[in-house]
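Notebook, p. 212. Picked up where the previous page left off. The plan for this session was modest: take the two constructs that came back from the sequencing core last week, fold each one, and keep the raw output in the notebook itself so nobody has to go hunting through shared drives later. Recording the first one now, exactly as returned: residue sequence, then the structure token string.
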Amino acid sequence: MSNNYESWDNKTLNYDLEKYNFRDWALRTIQEVAPTVTELETMHKSLSTSDLLQAQKHVQNACSRKEFMEMFDDFANKYVPPMIGNKKFMVQRQGTLRCVVPNQTAEGRRLTFHQGIWVGNGRGLRTIWTPLTECYGSNTMQIMDLESSRKLTAKVLKEELSLEEFEELSIEQCFPVTLSPGQSHLFCQEHIHGNVNNDTDITRVSIDMRILIEGEEYHRKLPGGYFRLPGDHSAAEEMDYTGKQVITYANWNTEFSKGIPLPMQRAVIDQYCAKHKISYVDYKGENEYCNWLPSLKTYIREKPDAIVLTSIFILPDKKEWRDEILNYALDNGVELHFANEYLTLCQRSDLEKIQSIREFAVQSKNA
């Protein structure tokens, strides 16, 4: 189990709001698509529910802009290391912007109670929950202490409680997080939390950012995809592959990829290709059960300019096979692009980066 829980068991972080003004950044970013918004607290007065959702998505996508990545990297490098025993860590690629409007239950927007592991977060993750408005009473996050969270989690699974029963018990044991801009709430993935109906007259806005500690469990939140290394701003880079011969490649031959249908793999690839103006000439795939990926080697040997793969996690699970393919691509001058992680293999330094990400953490320590 991950250590360093003491710094993340419902603790408050006071940070330099002037230097790390996430509030102003979020408002400016929202105004790009919703110029009528002048204050975060009154967003509900000028935006419909659907427009609000689009604004949230816009902000979350803007987390991949260099401006935000540099600001958050600096923030994380300043405050996180002492709280994780100075271990290495990765940071969430895109924050989750949450907007809790007054009487959000009527809009079908209330966040039900849950804990992070139930939504794919490994125990090696830590959450930095940062309000961008005043948060208090019914508009804020309701959260439980760690011991009670573990006990209630065990009860839910053992007794197969309904959601209504679980929520009733959660509300009884949770407390509201009261914070102002310039403060963050720190918690672990086993903490049960959620929202009650907001009966205040303001929209509460907050942003969730998570870190992954080196060597710890990521569960379903992949290093390189969901998380990036601090200082890795490759998602903000623009590429233009007009006129290049590019093919795409998918497989079902790894623990990660075996359950992902082809249309889902191609959707990730297509989004990446659209962003970088890549017009590919063919779809390629691997023969199932050939876990050493002989077809991929053949495609590399045919020397297209580049091959776009779904993820670094569709490379072989066996490290020797994985390294062999990566080195083979370098030797043949074929670029490999990994769509989910915004990574490219073009030179030897890229190889070291890909290898370090693949080996940064573990899916589970109980496997």
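Okay, moving on. Second construct, recorded in the same format:
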Amino acid sequence: MAHYAKLDENNIVLEVNVVDNEVEDEKGEAGVISWLLEGWGGVDWKKTSYNTTANVHSLDGTPFRKNYAGIGYTYDEDRDAFIPPKNYPSWTLNEITCLWEAPVTYPDDGKIYDWNEEITNWEEIT
């Protein structure tokens, strides 16, 4: 199955639809996009890979558009990537994974933490 993300005028993902491989084989990617625009509207549609997260393909294939698209993600044309919504103002975008990262590394001590934006650090959940 192929997956396509419906975009609005700001390149925000509104929904992700599944397209049968036979339809994609018959129409090609551009034909599928035209078909989706005609039938389901939107400003644009972009193909996305269910098997790609953090610029890694889970089946050892070639990563596609950095991340699988989700509702609320942004499609960045310059990076040709789907980027999730920013978690917190202090977090920065990792240009390789196109995921947001905290300014402080998550502790590796087996405990559970939650991000506290007020102190810009991890706080243990007790």
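Notes on construct two before I forget. The first strand starts at residue 2 and ends at 7.
Flagging for discussion at group meeting.
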